[in-house]
């Protein structure tokens, strides 16, 4: 199991606590320090069944600077969204957990975290 976290994020810390309480083994990826590649982010989005704009943190200051709130949200612009999220990983919603079986969730609630526990 892998979890993408920002250590400063309370939702991330809560998810880590839930994993610890469950006694499961996991790998932490501090995605701000070790951003995903475009291919990795694309795979995670496919597993989530979501598009990049669905997990974009549009409230981040860099989102406003880039004006992504006005970007088209369609298949023709998917790669543009992914590229900017890779370049500016703070735009990626967190935490994201990928379980050993490939199940992936945006783990912002305890229920979402528990949904990927074995």
TrEMBL record:
EC number assigned by the record: 1.20.4.1
Enzyme class (EC, first level): oxidoreductase
Highest taxon of the lineage: Bacteria
A GO term, aspect molecular function: arsenate reductase (glutaredoxin) activity
Species of origin: Saccharopolyspora hordei
Pfam family of the protein (one): ArsC
Keyword terms: Oxidoreductase
Protein name (database record): Arsenate reductase
Family, similarity comment: Belongs to the ArsC family.
PROSITE patterns to which the protein is assigned, alphabetical: ARSC (PS51353)
């Amino acid at each position: 199991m892998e979890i993408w976290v920002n250590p400063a994020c309370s939702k991330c810390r809560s998810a880590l606590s839930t994993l610890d309480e469950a006694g499961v083994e996991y790998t932490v990826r501090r995605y701000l320090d070790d951003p995903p590649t475009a291919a990795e982010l694309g795979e995670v989005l496919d597993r989530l069944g979501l598009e990049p704009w669905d997990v974009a943190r549009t409230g981040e200051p860099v989102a406003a600077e880039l004006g992504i709130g006005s970007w088209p949200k369609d298949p023709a612009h998917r790669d543009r969204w992914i590229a900017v999220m890779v370049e500016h990983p703070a735009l990626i919603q967190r935490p994201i957990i990928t379980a050993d079986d490939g199940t992936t969730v945006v783990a912002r609630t305890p229920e979402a975290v528990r949904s990927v526990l074995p």
